[in-house]
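INFO batch 0412 | record 1 of 1 | parsing
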Amino acid sequence: MSYPKRTAALASAAALAGSAVLLAAPAAHADVVDVDYRCQTPIGVKSAVSPIDIKGVKSGSGYKITMSWQKGVSSSPVELGKGAMSPSATIALGGADSGTLAVSGPANAAAIPANTPIRISDLSGSYTPKKSGKVTFTPGTLTIKALGTTTTCTPANSPKPSLTLDVTAAGGSSSSSGGASSPSSSSSGGASSGAQLPQTGPEDSAVALGTLGGTVLLAGAAGVLWLTRRGQAARR
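INFO prediction complete | emitting tokens
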């Protein structure tokens, strides 16, 4: 195969592999769900249906969760001046996780006329997975505080989840890298302390043989010297 054809083949294979990775990567699933809110207000019970959208964006080891309303769910008999209304809500967790997530948002940036549906700003909060798997996010209770009063709106229609995330818990099972030291580290520690094991390698055998040979030579020289001196004494 020629070089240009081989390059084109490799590029095509890489593109196919990249497509396979993209297809295999888990993606978040989000839906806009209609929530039938029953609101307990200072002037009685109000009801309204609002489409709710929940989105999740990866942020560090967790996610930033944002809850959005497409319609107002309550109203006030008097005008609410700028910054007079403070909203917050809860999101029910399901699937691999449980409990609730608190979300909140800024106060109203403009005055809200009397008897006008209160438009809720986007509410957000941080979610850190405690368990791995698919986690669902379902709209929960909405709380509106304004002019010293509190309005509580609860879903009456058991809405389905608006968002599903495939998450991984932070700080999963850790491998035991500490504790007992390995044999190699133990032996190096022993060497550093000055204790050395006897060696029986070829070099040490040669040293031993050399020492033995030297001993034999010295013994022979001593014997010759002793015999020589003895002979001299006998001749005298």
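INFO post-check: Helices lie at 3-24, 183-192, 202-235.
INFO record closed
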